[in-house]
Design a protein that fits this description.
Strands 1-3-2 form a 3-stranded antiparallel sheet. It has 4 helices and 3 strands; from the N terminus they run αβααββα. It is about 55% helix and about 15% strand. By secondary structure, the chain is α+β, with helices and mostly antiparallel strands.
Amino acid sequence: MERRRSSIEVIADILRLGQAGKTEIMYSANMSYFQLQKYLNYLLNLGLIDKVVVGNPSVTYRITEKGLDLLKSIESILDVLQLNGME
């Protein structure tokens, strides 16, 4: 039986991408469009990612310094708890 990911693990999956568009984030982080919208808005409001306009109407999302700091902290916690790579 596969365990469900926590919100923190989903956030880490998104932040690990560095910079990506909605479709890439959705597929890489294995989430629905509804979940994607929820997480992107949350991360934008916290200043963990930035919205980058790369064309009209093309937009990507990029991790910020604050997001990098959070990702490092999450990775450390997951390593201590031995959840990284655990299925």
